[in-house]
Write a structure and sequence with these properties.
- It is a single chain.
- The chain is an alpha/beta fold.
- It has 2 domains: about 150 residues, Rossmann fold; about 180 residues, Rossmann fold.
- The chain is about 35% helix and about 15% strand.
- The protein has 13 helices and 12 strands.
- A 6-stranded parallel beta sheet has the order 3-2-1-4-5-6, with helices on both faces. Strands 9-8-7-10-11-12 form a 6-stranded parallel beta sheet, with helices on both faces.
- Helix 6 packs across helix 9.
- The chain starts with 16 loop residues before the first strand and ends with a helix.
- About 45% of the residues are buried.
């Protein structure tokens, strides 16, 4: 029988192995780290394993609340049915006592059930929800609750006490030294006022126009003598090059080879300007002063979880919306005035330089 959210704080007995399922994005996993910390706090003797994707798994390196990371790669290594069956059989042999389907998806619920775990915690949504033993049955309306708090709500069904609402992403000293060397190779000297920019995003509707980024970068160089470092990821090289070519000032462009390399290079920046994206959440975890540009995404649920971050968005009468069915050309993002982004960024810089 499933337990409802009215029975919060039930500490489970004899828990020595916990599996947490989070195989989606970088931001999804980072915003789960406070909930993972609360689980570790309540079950300190349990071995905690996170089932992640090849994309987001690197963010857990150095996380003190995680003992093991398993990668479930549906695009390559575990693409075929036979490979997936073999992987699931391996999970079952681990004999987890508790599986937390922190990612709300039919596959997560199915994996939790196939694991054979005694306790299976998740949200009462999607297919196979009836196979869960402990369920959170609430609903969240847009514009009300941050994703980190949603994850905390879930694990509080079986936890007590509070967890710090801070994302966990720890860099290693060698990674920071490598980033500093990388800046030198780009001609960026130590002591430079360095502003990173990431003009990309996972979908077109999240991307502020490249000509706006170029104009903003020029103003930052002229007004604050800033050095601009434009980050780009897979399939974003043309975007970064276009911005660099459109600028009247000089800018460096950089394509990190790994997520951790990106995080290390971000840690060297004095400030970061970006769209709603995975790098935005990395910057939040590192407490880098950030201007985050939002379009149709629920900014309350997904704003960067850092006191040093500010959100810039254009309020629209059609929000909350279904971004992929926009009938007015994503005006919230594409027509966001540069002055709004400039004003927020400028205020942040003044606070930094006080």
């Amino acid at each position: 029988m499933s337990l409802s959210s009215s029975q919060n704080g039930e500490i489970l007995r004899d828990i020595d192995k916990i599996l947490i399922i989070r195989t989606d994005g970088i931001g999804d996993l980072l915003n789960s780290t406070p909930a993972i910390a609360l689980l570790h706090q309540n079950y300190p003797s349990a071995e905690i394993t996170v089932l992640a994707s090849s994309l987001n798994a690197p963010v857990l390196v150095g996380n003190p609340d995680v003992d093991k990371v398993l990668v479930f790669d549906r695009q390559r290594e575990h693409r075929g049915l036979s490979e997936q069956i073999h992987f699931m059989n391996g999970l079952r042999k681990e004999k987890y006592n508790l599986v937390v389907a922190m990612q709300t998806a039919s596959l997560s619920h199915c994996i939790a059930f196939l694991s054979g775990a005694t306790y299976r915690l998740g949200r009462y949504q999607k297919r196979f929800k009836s196979t869960l033993t402990h369920t959170w049955r609430g609903r969240y309306r847009k514009g009300e609750t941050h994703e980190a708090d949603r994850n905390l709500d879930l694990v509080r069904l079986i936890c007590q006490g509070e967890s710090e609402r801070k994302l966990v992403f720890n860099l290693l000293p060698d990674e920071i030294r490598t980033a500093e060397t990388g800046l030198e190779s780009l001609g960026i000297s130590n002591g430079t006022f360095l502003i990173g920019m990431h003009p990309g995003g996972s979908s077109f509707d999240k991307r502020w126009p490249e000509e706006q980024y170029a104009a903003l970068a020029d103003r930052l160089v002229q007004q604050y003598d800033a050095t601009i470092l434009i980050f780009y990821g897979p399939d974003e090289e043309e975007l970064a090059d276009n911005i660099q070519k459109s600028m009247q000032s000089d800018a460096a462009v950089y394509a990190p080879e790994t997520i951790r390399g990106l995080g290390a290079m971000l840690s060297c920046c004095d400030m970061f300007v970006c769209n709603d994206s995975g790098p935005m959440h990395l910057a939040a975890a590192l407490d880098i002063p950030t201007t985050a540009i939002f379009g149709p995404t629920d900014h309350v649920a997904w704003h960067p979880m850092s006191e040093n971050a500010s959100v810039v968005r254009r309020d629209m009468p059609c929000w909350p919306c279904s971004a992929h069915k926009c009938k007015i050309g994503w005006e919230c993002t594409k027509k966001l005035p540069i002055e709004m982004v400039w004003n927020t960024t400028s205020m942040t810089i003044k606070a930094i330089q006080k």
